Amino acid sequence: MKKYRIALVAHDHKKPELLQWVNKHIDVMRKCSIVATGTTGGLIADNTGLTVTRFKSGPLGGDQQIGALIANGELDALFFFWDPLNPAPHDPDVKALLRLCSVWNVPVACTAATADMVVTSPLFLSDDYQPVKPSYDR
């Protein structure tokens, strides 16, 4: 079984919800290689014992660091619990991150319900499933 490379990101008001979701799926999370933005990564590591590679805080460049992984084909899924009711000063970075997932056909879940469906899919963690990666070579 391959080790899925996932990113976990959450805006401040959504961090408790993401932590609850991670704990709900802790057995699946243990099979993943996890990266996260700074504060979110620390919260997850401290409360679950999972190994998390932490990047900078989202507003300080962490969103772009995760975006670089997507653009380089180094991320299998993004779980980004963003807060639609509170404006973020780095909203353009958030939109760019979500856009990159669409550009490179990377699964992205922005709610616990969608995230549940992604990690419980028989395709998640499957060695047989290879998502189509678009070619933009001319």
Number of strands: 5
N-to-C CA distance: 34 Å
Placed side by side, the strands forming the largest sheet appear as 3-2-1-4-5
How would you sum up the major sheet? 5 strands, parallel
Radius of gyration: 14 Å
CATH architecture: 3-Layer(aba) Sandwich
CATH topology: Rossmann fold
Top CATH class:
Alpha Beta
> Any idea how many domains?
1
Note the beta-strand portion: 15-25%
Number of helices: 6
Helix content: 40-55%
Low-confidence stretches: none
Shape: globular
CATH superfamily: Methylglyoxal synthase-like domain
Description:
Strands 3-2-1-4-5 form a five-stranded parallel sheet, sandwiched between helices. The longest helix has 13 residues. The chain is globular and about 40 Å long. The protein is built from six helices and five strands; from the N terminus they run βααβαβαβαβα. The chain has 138 residues and is of the alpha/beta class.
